[in-house]
Amino acid sequence: MNPPARLVSEDRRQDREGFLAQLTRHYAAIRRHLIILVGDLGDAEDLMQETALVLWDRFETHDPDASFLAWAKGVATNLARNFLRKRYRNPRKQVGFTPGALASLAKVSEGAAELFELRLEKLEDCLAKLSERDRRMVWECYGNGTKIVAFASRHDKSAGTVRSRLHRLRERLHDCISRKMREIDVGGLT
Amino acid sequence: MTPGSNMNPSPGLVREVEALAHAVCRGELEPEQSERLSSLLDGNLALCHSYLNILSLHARLIELGDSPGPEEVYDRLFPPRTGIGRLGRRVVAVAATVAAACLTVAVWTFGPQAETPVVGRVVAVAEGTEWAGDTKRNGQAIRKRDSVAVESGFVTIELPGDVVVDLVGPGHVRFDATDRVWLKRGRLAASVGLAGVGFTVGTEDADIVDLGTAFQVHKDFSLGTQLRVTEGSVQTRLKDDAGNVVQFLDLVAGESARLDRVAVVAEQTGDLFDFDAAFDPVGQAKGGVRRFTGAAQPLSSSLVGLDTRSGVTNTLGRVFVLPERSGLVLDREYPVETTSGRVTIPAGTPVDSYLFHFDMGEVDVITALGRGSTTFGGRVLAVVGSSDGLATTDATFANPGATFDPAAARGLEPDEDDVSVSADGRTVTFDFDVSPPGSLDQFRVLVRGTKP
Q1: Are strands B118-125 and B141-143 parallel, antiparallel or unpaired?
Q2: What is the full DSSP assignment across B40-77?
Q3: In chain B, whose CA is at the least distance from the CA of A100?
Q4: What is the pLDDT confidence band of residue B434, given thresholds at 50, 70 and 90?
Q5: How far apart are CA A50 and CA B87, in angstroms?
Q6: Neighbours of B327 (CB within 10 A)
């Protein structure tokens, strides 16, 4: 016997609430994972939408006792791989990878997750060494074109100048983190 | 064998991969560079590691510079209009379906086409405040998801439940709901009435949940979130990277804490941050004023000690409200001439005083300027508007060191200036006209003090 319509509706409503709550909670982590895979924020946001739709379609099959984040990252990884594979076959491609490169990246991404986390902890120290103005620039507009334009306008600079500065800051931060990692000797993988 | 197949790549190859990774981050990778990068990474885990080091840094920096709140996440995932990029119409159609379904969920009750609800309003903007985003003005409505960012000075926003939030520059806060704000960085003080219990300040590190109190927060990237409770108690909830609560820490008045998501720290501390230096000037600038409207404005700390002699400081149409004495207990009966007749304030009454100052310098024509109001926490005892009355009360209530011009007609002109007190005795409304040649107008408000 089918359950009464009212009960079905209530179940669906609770599903949607649960899905949105999980997706919102893990949005940042999934997006960060996609940015690492595809490099570009716009591409990552597009893939994030696609990931959300796939997750929604398959939410009923997701085991509520299993990690939503791990499941979502798996879906996101597959979508990003397809995206990068297609990009590689496209003559006007920008970032694209062969299946072999993608497999190697996936292996390192999964196997060295703790090392990446450790590097990000060192980022805190390195950011603290930047000037207040540079730190503010990173906080206010890194990676967001619209905010870069607004920041440039407020500080009487061109957007290109701000963008270049942000890229130089990333390079400096990378060097700083690598120095700090060498200091604590993590086995030559830094 | 691919060029990158060596598991111990040469420094030259590492540098090449790093340069290509930075090009990926800049969005400037050419097709042939992409092929080269792919061939270097294929099978070489050490080079993959070098590449991912930079991409994970890039992702983290994006997170710092662009961290959407819960409702912005919703908008990004289910954009309200077409033209959302690569996914095209299919995504729009499906997203619209999902979005429509989600409208039944209480937490997402408003659609993208609906007017965004008002969650609060601006009740004070300090003179000299420098904005890092859109300028705000007295009385301006703050809508759900509005951000307010100041470089210096301060702005006060009132929310339902008797919640008053001071954002002190440099600082950036977003208003997510009537009972929740997100402090991206900087300094915020919250005063919460009983009806506002549960009001929450979220940061990247933690949620700070009010339990009927006043508290001050400083969000700094290197030290995480620091908190001092000045009244009542709060509950803090440290979060992990995914936003899950991992630790609770309850604090009461006089206690301070540091909350750091990255270091996974939620601990009581001494004040690592100088809360007094950050927030005392705001208290001094506002005194016991609850709300400013129209031309009424507090000064930022740098302008306290303003020279109020005629023609010295042009207030440019604003009426500066200068707190003077706080909690001065009268040791005898105090008779005073007010705008509504003679009043005697009983001995033992605690009194706060405020000087209202308006000066447009020399003017050529009669001009209607300077309309606004000020609402106090205590009941207004007297409004002193005449030049003689001001001179008489200076000795008791003026700020030590304040300079007044004895020859100037400081007071209000009965035919041109109108000052009134509301029926509940807490709001003073003013409407100044200025006539040539001078435009100085001052009056003093005596309020029953809250701190005897």
Answers
A1: antiparallel
A2: HHTT-HHHHHHHHHHHHHHHHHHHHH----HHHHHHHH
A3: B42
A4: low
A5: 8
A6: 12
Q: Is B95 on the interface with A (CB under 8 A)?
A: yes
Cβ–Cβ of B29/A104 closer than 8 Å?
Answer: no
Q: For residue A13, give the nearest of B49, B54, B105 by CB distance.
A: B105
User: d(Cα B127, Cα B303) in Å, to the nearest integer?
Assistant: 8
Name B342's Cβ contacts closer than 8 Å, sequence gap at least 6: B335, B336
Q: pLDDT confidence of A57, banded at 50, 70, 90?
A: confident
Q: Which residue of B has its CA nearest to A70?
A: B242
**Residue in this structure with the two tokens 């992409």, named with its chain if needed:** B34
Distance CA(B281)–CA(B256), nearest Å, equals 20
Per-residue pLDDT at B57: 93
Tally helices (H) and strands (E) across chain A.
8, 0
Task: Determine contact: B316 vs chain A, CB below 8 A.
Answer: no
* Low-confidence winner among B179-193, B306-320, B378-392 (lowest mean pLDDT): B306-320
Q: Where are the beta strands (DSSP E) in B221-281?
A: 224-231, 233-239, 245-252, 256-260, 265-269
Give the residue on B whose Cα is nearest the Cα of A112: B49
- Cβ contacts of A107 on chain B, cutoff 8 Å: 45, 48
Give the DSSP letter of residue B127: B
With CA atoms as reference, report the closest residue to B191 among B277, B258, B279, B274. B279
For residue B269, give how far its alpha carbon lies from the nearest alpha carbon of chain A (Å). Answer: 20
- According to DSSP, the residues that pair with B292 across neighbouring strands are B374
ipTM for the whole complex: 0.86
* Test mutation, B36, B58, B244, chain A, max A CBs within 10 A: B58
Q: Is the pTM of this model over 0.80?
A: no
Q: Tokens 């205590």 identify what position? A: B378
Amino acid at A35: I
CB contact residues (below 8 A), chain B span 235-294, against chain A: 241-244, 262-263
* Cβ distance of B61 and A142 shorter than 8 Å: yes
Q: Supply A124's token pair.
A: 């805190």
Cis bond before residue B70 (omega within 30° of 0): no
Contact (CB<8Å) A170/B57: yes
Choice between A28 and B69, residue whose per-residue pLDDT is larger:
A28
Whether residue A155 is predicted with pLDDT greater than 80 in this model: the reply is yes
Cross-chain residue pair A144–B24, CB shorter than 8 Å:
no
For an interface test with A, the pick among B57, B107, B219 (most A C-beta atoms closer than 10 Å) comes out as: B57
The DSSP line for A15-53 is HHHHHHHHHHHHHHHHHHHHHHHH--HHHHHHHHHHHHH
Q: How many CA atoms lie within 13 A of B178 on its CB side?
A: 12
Cβ contacts from A onto B, under 8 A: 221
CB atoms inside a 10 Å sphere around CB A161: 12
Q: Pick the closest to residue A141 from A162, A157, A161 (CA basis).
A: A162
Tell me, what's the pLDDT at B51?
A: 94
Which residue type does B419 have? Answer: V
> Is A167 in contact with B54 (Cβ distance < 8 A)?
no
Distance CA B200, CA B236 (A): 9
What is the DSSP-derived secondary structure letter of residue A61? Answer: G
